[in-house]
């Protein structure tokens, strides 16, 4: 019995006698459905393989010839065609529409760089050159460069899974680190300054007040807040149910999705009496204008997510505080809970809708204050002992040096 062993080359083996051979899968017979395999121990010139690499090269040639002779044009497919016909449609079907739309520009970057190159001709050095370009010459932020290169690597992973490639050459290169990003947020005093410049007797400004107030005190993601309706508020028990998100193209074309970013994002949080009062006052104002459904709305249609950063920027400038991103309101909420109420990580995690406290710490650990100085003060004098009055150790080694004290 001849025992075979794998080599580091795909489809190439070595038997117990040390002879190399290839065994490749060529698909299935269209009539019988049986697998089509081809095995060989010699080159096309009838020469036995001396190395595993020789067998690998012949296996590629055999596979190439078979594919081309059977009309498999995909074997010589260019990267751009692969992206348009296979990867992009697959990616679109697997992610949210908003995520796909955000990646369209990245797909254009990839096709511009690799589009005319045959998929099977992309080598590790080509990937490394692209990686170097993204980091040094593209002008992109490190976070964006990281996302583009990750998308490229994933596209080649997909090519391997679908059988267009035997291996992913980009995996021989390093990923691009996202880098450290700090999200600016408002402190409680800054937030109070912002609220104090909003004229709530004006209907539109009243809405802006409510939007900022809810994001700051509830810590919702932007899309979660935009989807809120009054059915989500339990005014008697002071509860708010967060269980859906808004996906919007325009005010007449939007979808309310019955789920959040993650399964743990579906949650019910407690509201304080001040927030309940803010909601009740706003609801009365909305009803005067015929609005009865969406909370963050002045005309009973959802607010566009692009409007939120404009509101933040407008009133930050008016109040003389630093402008922040819309997601900075979520960070502001975490800072508020920690600094004002000394909230523990588990409470914060549940309120944010994270899957675990570890996720919360990953993104917000820097917001918890250092308390090692207080601990150091408390440690002083805590350890009590009496120094030895005589030497009880009998040791005559080279290190036996008597103290002069």
UniProtKB/TrEMBL annotation:
Cited Gene3D superfamilies: 1.10.150.130, Intergrase catalytic core
Signal peptide: none
Annotated Pfam families: Phage_int_SAM_3, Phage_integrase
Key words, A-Z: DNA integration, DNA recombination, DNA-binding
The UniProt record lists the keyword DNA-binding: yes
GO process annotations (BP): DNA integration; DNA recombination
InterPro entries from the UniProt entry: DNA_brk_join_enz, Integrase-like_cat_sf, Integrase_catalytic, Integrase_recombinase_N, Integrase_SAM-like_N, Tyrosine_recombinase_XerCD
Residue stretches making up the Tyr recombinase domain: 181-377
Gene Ontology molecular function: any one: DNA binding
Family of this protein: Belongs to the 'phage' integrase family.
Name of the protein in its database record: Site-specific integrase
Biological source species: Limosilactobacillus albertensis
């Amino acid at each position: 019995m001849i025992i075979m062993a794998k080599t580091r080359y795909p489809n190439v083996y070595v038997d117990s006698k040390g002879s190399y051979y290839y065994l490749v899968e060529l698909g299935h017979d269209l009539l019988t459905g049986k697998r089509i395999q081809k095995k060989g121990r010699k080159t096309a010139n009838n020469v036995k393989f001396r190395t595993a690499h020789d067998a690998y090269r012949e296996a590629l040639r055999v596979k190439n010839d078979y594919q081309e002779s059977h009309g498999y044009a995909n074997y010589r497919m260019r990267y751009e065609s692969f992206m348009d016909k296979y990867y992009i449609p697959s990616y679109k079907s697997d992610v949210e529409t908003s995520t796909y739309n955000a990646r369209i520009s990245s797909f254009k970057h990839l096709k511009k760089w690799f589009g005319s190159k045959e998929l099977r001709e992309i080598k590790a050095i080509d990937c490394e050159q692209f990686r170097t370009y993204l980091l040094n010459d593209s002008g992109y932020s490190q976070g964006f460069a990281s996302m583009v290169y990750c998308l490229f690597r994933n596209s080649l992973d997909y090519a391997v899974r679908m059988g267009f490639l035997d291996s992913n050459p980009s995996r021989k290169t390093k990923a691009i680190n996202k880098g450290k990003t700090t999200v600016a947020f408002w402190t409680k005093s800054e937030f109070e300054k912002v609220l104090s410049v909003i004229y709530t007797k004006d209907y539109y400004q009243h809405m802006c007040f409510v939007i900022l107030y809810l994001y700051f005190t509830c810590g919702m993601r932007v899309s979660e807040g935009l989807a809120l309706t009054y059915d989500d508020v339990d005014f008697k028990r002071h509860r708010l149910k967060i269980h859906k998100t808004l996906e919007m193209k325009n005010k007449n074309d939007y979808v309310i999705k019955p789920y959040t970013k993650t399964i743990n994002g579906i949650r019910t949080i407690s509201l304080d009496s001040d927030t309940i009062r803010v909601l009740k006052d706003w609801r009365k104002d909305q009803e005067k204008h015929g609005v009865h459904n969406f909370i963050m709305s002045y005309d009973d249609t959802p607010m566009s997510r692009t409007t939120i950063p404009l509101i933040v920027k407008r009133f930050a400038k008016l109040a003389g505080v630093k402008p922040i991103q819309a997601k900075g309101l979520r960070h502001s909420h975490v800072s508020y809970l920690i600094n004002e109420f000394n909230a523990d990580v588990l409470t914060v995690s549940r309120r944010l809708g994270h899957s675990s406290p570890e996720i919360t710490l990953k993104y917000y650990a820097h917001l918890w204050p250092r308390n090692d100085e207080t601990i150091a003060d408390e440690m002083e004098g805590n350890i009590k002992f009496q120094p030895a009055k005589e030497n009880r150790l009998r040791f005559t080694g080279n290190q036996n040096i008597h103290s002069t004290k």
